[in-house]
Amino acid sequence: MNQNQQLFAAAQKHIPGGVNSPVRAFGSVGGTPRFFKKGLGAYVWDADDQRYIDYVGSWGPLILGHTHPDVLEAVINAAKNGMSFGAPTAAEVELADLICKMLPSIEQVRLVSSGTEATMSAIRLARGFTGRDKLVKFEGCYHGHADSLLVKAGSGLLTFGNPSSAGVPASVAADTLVLPYNDVAALEALFAEIGEQIAAIIVEPIAGNMNMVQASAEFVQAMRKLTENYGSVLIYDEVMTGFRVGLQCTQGLHGIKPDLTCLGKVVGGGMPLAAFGGRNDIMAKLAPLGPVYQAGTLSGNPVAVAAGLATLKLISEYGFFNQLSIQTKKLCDGLIQIAKETNTIFSTQSVGGMFGFYFSKNIPQSFADVMNSDRTKFNSFFHGMLNKGIYLAPSAFEAGFVSAAHSDQDIIDTLEVARLVFLEIS
Ligand SMILES: N[C@H](C=O)CCC(=O)O
Question: N6-(pyridoxal phosphate)lysine modification sites (predicted)?
């Protein structure tokens, strides 16, 4: 047994499934998860000292690559002054100001510790604000693991083939109404029927938890118009896309202002930090100002805030997203070219530093399209790449990420490996 195998066996003794989050377990692709011991720039090293070019980036946060020197320095300096106070700090005021400056839809923001906390709190707030219970979500979207959101969800639930979790009371799930993604007619019909009862729509505006599916312009406009007309709250879950697809996130690309936005991943620079924020009148309902309770001992943790601030400052530098988009597109264009040359049915797309690839002729527009892609082929591709030093997400239902640390040579090396693997599996 190699080190990864030994560690996985040992891990299963005291950690359920040997992992602290299900998607890490290589569930649908099979095989042994890699246990990482080091990350630097675009690379990670596993317990057997195998180096990989990393396109997972801790599932999205590491837009600058692993252990960026400025982020590291900020974290070390902050930690030296205290790991946690459970009290306000100047740095969290600076981060809140910066977020509000970068995203015009956010007038007030609250910092939390995970994406799940952000979405869970945003939904409670939307319900408290509207006095309504019903929530609309879309099939294949994953908004963290709060009870009311584990209904027909993507990410690890899809990976393990169980899109609605056990342990969620039917009474809780009953208020979550699930519609197909990008289906304007279904959305209009639901609002026409019970629009006055709907507290909120929550959506991944670019769904990264069923691989990568983009909301159409018509769908975005319909969500905005219907929520405005019926007094419901539009929640953009930009935990994955926030500061990843562009400096003003997906909402900037869509040219709309959601009522509430959830952020995570990049905003915390690789540390446990997330946020939710939006309109003043809605945020004013939060305790201690209003009746909606939300709290957290580690919320606004100074070390995490330092990582977030350092990261947001670096990605705000002129040309950052332009360069990141070019690099990500180079990868996708290269893959398409190789797929053509090897007669592989394949499609791919990218926005900013986020990409999806599918063993299907056309880029998926819905959950059903993703389900119809050739996932057996995905698994073979994944393992072929992994064995040759390229680390992709171990699931056909997760997006990929390019960081500023991925060099031209890294992309060239990745494409060379992809060519070999396409030939192997075609
Ligand atoms: N898709 C998930 C979050 O974005 C992947 C991370 C996890 O569930 O551990």
Answer: 265
* 377 counts as catalytic: no
Q: How far apart are CA 26 and CA 337, in angstroms?
A: 28
Q: Which domain holds residue 292?
A: 70-315
Q: Which of 43, 52, 55, 142 is catalytic?
A: 142
pLDDT the model gives residue 148: 87
Four-residue CA torsion sign, 262, 268, 269, 272: negative
Distance 85 CA to ligand 1 centre (A): 28
Reply yes or no on whether 54 is catalytic. Answer: no
Ligand 1 centre to CA of 143 (Å) is 10
87-107 burial code (b ≥16 CB/10 A, e <16): eebebbeebbebbeebbebbe
**Model pLDDT, residue 261:** 99
- Give the integer Cα–Cα distance in Å for 216 and 69: 38
Co-location of 55 and 80 in the same domain: no
The residue to which tokens 């118009």 are assigned: 225
CA distance 53 to 368: 31
Q: Are residues 138 and 249 in the same domain?
A: yes
Q: Which residues contact 96 (CB under 8 A, 6 or more apart)?
A: 109, 111
Give the atom of ligand 1 at the shortest distance from the alpha carbon of 155: 1
For the chain, the domain total comes to: 2
CB-ligand 1 contact for 59 (6 Å cutoff): yes
Asked whether this complex has an ipTM greater than 0.90, the answer is yes
Nearest to 406 by CA among 46, 54, 69, 59: 54
pTM (2 d.p.): 0.97
**120 and 246 share a domain?**
yes
| CATH at residue 355 | 3.90.1150.10
Q: Which atom of ligand 1 is closest in space to residue 156's alpha carbon? A: 8
The response to whether residue 153 sits with its C-beta less than 6 Å from ligand 1 reads: no
Q: What is the pLDDT of residues 352-367, one digit of tens each?
A: 999 999 999 999 999 9
The number of residues in the chain equals: 426
Same domain, residue pair 164 and 61: no
Q: Is 369 in the pocket of ligand 1 (CB under 6 A)?
A: no
| Pocket-testing residue among 26, 56, 142, 158, ligand 1, by greatest number of atoms within 8 A of Cβ | 142
